[in-house]
């Protein structure tokens, strides 16, 4: 009994919020007015967010996963997922598009499609999704996920079983972007006992101060505890090979039966930060923020961002996911998100300034 109580106490202490927070999250903003009463610690990042607005509301398109970068031309370039039809068609019809604006708030001019599924027997035959872009040396590195739905039968039949991470490079933000390989840049482990033997997805690149490339990624530990977790793979060259860290998974909420999703990692003021969509630690429509001194051992999660209804005059709390950060002089300046709803009742981008 003593050991059982210790285990329960440890689960509570992982975040310091789980037991009381979820019980009180009601109302328009899905969060209690007094966070401290529910054991919720709000990060400084969350406190600094302001001026929420939807961007890239495109008729007949679902927009998702907007990754920003400042171009050599001084313009704001965004690379994002888009597809037509119902939201579930992201599994089979998503592509990566490119838009440009004079400032993060827009308005944006859509320039067109950057990457699509290659069809046939390629690992990324169908959907191309969740881009993240950075300048690496004199190249632009565009990481993405892809799948091949016909190949799902080779695994367990689930659509997610073929999701992997790919990489395309270009000399210019205006393209063309060329895949660096016919194979994924980061594949699954062949050993089903490993946490990342089912899929690799949702890449987040950190250009480490030591010159290495740290590719954080999500995997679904389906063959073991069925929880989604975060790890990192490290390379000396942007094209790889990427070696998975021996301490993986680095971030897991499996002890409380919660999962990770959509992490983005950045380095600022000699500290590492990871912002992600919450999957139920506090509430599934808010974000979490973690920090680290070394990029390997991460802190307890704090509130990373609130719900859409907190930032804009909207009545319905909607899914808000896939955070991406635009940096300026080594500090976060804007938070880009994907948000369900909008005037076309599809999904759009969402922008928050970091004060």
TrEMBL record:
Matches recorded under InterPro entries: Glyco_hydro_43, Glyco_hydro_beta-prop_sf
UniProt GO MF annotations: hydrolase activity, hydrolyzing O-glycosyl compounds
Site annotation Important for catalytic activity, responsible for pKa modulation of the active site Glu and correct orientation of both the proton donor and substrate: residues: 262
Cross-referenced Pfam families: Glyco_hydro_43
UniProt KW keywords: Glycosidase, Hydrolase, Signal
Gene Ontology annotations of biological process type: carbohydrate metabolic process
Entry similarity comment: Belongs to the glycosyl hydrolase 43 family.
Name of the protein in question: Glycosyl hydrolase family 43
Species the sequence originates in: Saccharobesus litoralis
Organism taxonomic ancestry: Bacteria, Pseudomonadati, Pseudomonadota, Gammaproteobacteria, Alteromonadales
